[in-house]
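Format is chain and fold; as here:
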Amino acid sequence: MTTETPVPAAKRVPTERTHHGDTVVDEYAWLAAKDDPATIAHLTAENAYTEARTAHLEGLRAALFEETRRRTQETDLSVPSRKGGYWYYTRTVEGQQYGVHCRRAVRPGETDPPVSADGAPLDGEEVLLDGNLLAEGHDFFALGAFDVSPDGRWLAYSTDFSGDERFTLRVKDLSTGELLPDEVPGTFYGTAWSADASVLFYVTVDDAWRPNRVWRHTLGTPSSEDVVVHQEDDERFWIGVELTRSEKFILIDIHSKITSEVLVIPANNPTGAPASVASRRQGVEYTVEHHGHRFLILHNDGAEDFALAYTSADAPGDWVPLIEHSPGTRLEAVDAFADHLVVSLRANGLTGLRVLPVGGGDPYDIDFPEPLYSVGLDANPEYRTGQLRLRYTSLVTPDSVYDYDLVTRRLVLRRQKPVLPGPDGRPYDPADYEQHRDWALADDGTRVPISLVCRKDTPRDGSAPCVIYGYGSYEASMDPWFSIARLSLLDRGVIFAVAHIRGGGELGRRWYDQGKLLAKKNTFTDFVACARHLVKAGWTASDRLVARGASAGGLLMGAVANIAPDAFAGIVAQVPFVDALTSILDPSLPLTVTEWEEWGNPLDDPEVYAYMRSYTPYENVRAVDYPAILAVTSLNDTRVLYHEPAKWIARLRAVAPQGDYLLKTEMGAGHGGPSGRYDAWREEAFINAWVLDRLGRA
């Protein structure tokens, strides 16, 4: 089908549901039947319609893809990180979609990571896993586990060829290059080796695709003999497994949205029974890191923005304070090394790193020069080390890898992601661009931060086009990040803005709490306030403003389309959670029960039902003039099911038929979209071409 007539939905009997006295008719519930030929025909027709409606952008899409490709050093090599007697790194090769995972032996006297010219293989390298070879014959490929055993002999890795995040686990003998007969289908993320590398722990999911079991597999035995180490029956909780950096303990992390518990198994006794560090208490979250004779506990017990304590590793009991709670400074993680502890935190909307010397000396924060940036620890597999590997970026600074000397307190730049000359042949110069922090005023008087980046010559008279991005859920923070593909927008005069709205974690736990459950609408009204502010402050105009968000940020897009359709010239909603109430009402769907502590339980609570009913996008489509909408989804997505945006677009066409609505479905991908880097660049070029068209810059 290549007609430019909007795709009609097949005529099916509507589905009715009744909760708390409210009856809802769903005309498009039939689209949830993934195996129904009519569903596939509908999605295929939508793709053809979208392609026909955007055919005039084919040249622009090709140009945007080429700009990203030209600016990217395609043959490249990551900064090697040391573990034991090897340097581990990943290479990419021009023309190949996936990374090549390698290692090279550490040479006598070698302390700095080795480098190569133009990303060429290191002399003496050993290829552990080539993603391009594994992906041959498949439209999609993703790695779940990549876990080298403590002795460096075995590699546990897992693969997904459909995008549904269900992996087949295998073990490779790195001394011979051969695969062991050990093979476990249907696994999830997360593995951990025993100290002697004879046992491998892994995770599987239940029928609702909730990670609920940790298994123990003994190398050389069939998977049918594997033993369940822990099964989590409370459907609010999910589990994970990992080996501590010290390689002394296996940690089984058990979490709901607001409560947690950690079980430990000595890594040298993998058949031992798991022991709880602290029993779960409703509303108390904690994580565990091993350090010598103690377990470090990062927790929120009486500490809204978290505090750091420790307890005995031999007999866990009382928590002894290390860092007291400081409102407004959110402690996010602690990493233990033999002679230092490093706390990842955020304050005043920015990330930071605090070093605590173990042998004495005052704690201190590592300083960074830019007013807006994002910093965090990178790969640091060695427990005994005098250096920290960290990653730094900003809206104008490409991804940068530093080693921080814990003795001299000196930062050494190991590598900054190259940005090659663009179409005009000019090298990238950060001085050509500028980043800003602005503040919008929400309806309730709350100040909401906005991060912006643009070319220095961009006018401030309201004539510049703008893209505003948002998320605002799960305490996830949209910290400043650099994007090569974004340069193609900036160089065409487009401003890029990030709205740090409530529901995210940018300003601490309270910022998150004020944008969830029965305060969720703050997320949406904050975003609209940011959009209105950009217009009022002269950054842009409403007819030159496109909004963009993905997943829970796609819910945001659908909600603001209903709340303020006049505020935007276009909306991009990727894998959007737009039929939230229907999904959260169905506990058989993947992850629904675990989500109740984020959104509320509309099944049992009529107040939650009424509140969600009032904002969920699909339920609130109205006969108004909507901005143009592009919805992008994936058929095999297990987090936000494809039928949510499919139903949403169908209802928009029926209720407000004068609008311009497009649906694009990746028929062989998952939540993250296409898996290969070139395919991902093409997807981004498709979206950005549509955005530029809406902004009059095509």
